[in-house]
Amino acid sequence: MRRMRLRLWTFLGFTGSVLLVPLAAMGKERTSSSAIPAGADFCFLRKYDGEHLRSRPHQLVTSIQLMGRNAWKTGSSDNVYATLLVSFRDTPKRLTAHGSCFLEEVSRTPSLLCGFTPYPTQFADVLQQTLYVREATSGQIELQAAADWRVIREDKDPDEPYGKVSTDDEIFILKAQPISDCEFPKGFWSKNGPTRKFLGTLP
User: Fold this and answer.
1) From the CB of residue 152, how many other CB atoms can be counted at a distance below 10 Å?
2) What's the pTM?
3) What is the secondary structure of 100-152 as a DSSP string?
4) Is the model more confident about 183 or about 72?
5) Structure confidence at residue 119 (pLDDT)
């Protein structure tokens, strides 16, 4: 349980009361990444068809969107803001979570370390989904989830043990698409970037 909670809490985009890894250990906060450049708008999608889901009856996630408008940023010293929109097999209700990403510099494979929370007022600094984002091939990214999606979407008590993410819902390959293909939540994003409402959701 401690190992899972450590993975959930060791991202840099949030400064809640629980931060288990010193900032110095992560290096400087940079987002110079081939996966998601700091000064760029982006939209990545993956929707699984019926054949794929029938072949993987235990896969819970049916579609993922990862999106952000960060072209207003300059340089590479700021974090990348992003929204995560996830659909599931067992419910029509989708998970919408907002967060930010930083360049992880402690692993051999360069990746972005992103933290997303759907609960801005309750457990916002604890109950979050951590995603490791890496470039897969040109125009594609790989997402690796750290937590059980059911725990995040159902607002489980953070004092309870976190579920281990299943292998069917851990790694996803998303393809870059035009910005207009992503469903940016109204009120949280404008053409100029994240709104005050968006920033107010972050711990």
Assistant:
1) 26
2) 0.79
3) EEEEE-SSSS-EEEEEEES-SSSSTTTS-EEEEEEE-STTEEEEEE-S-HHHH
4) 183
5) 65
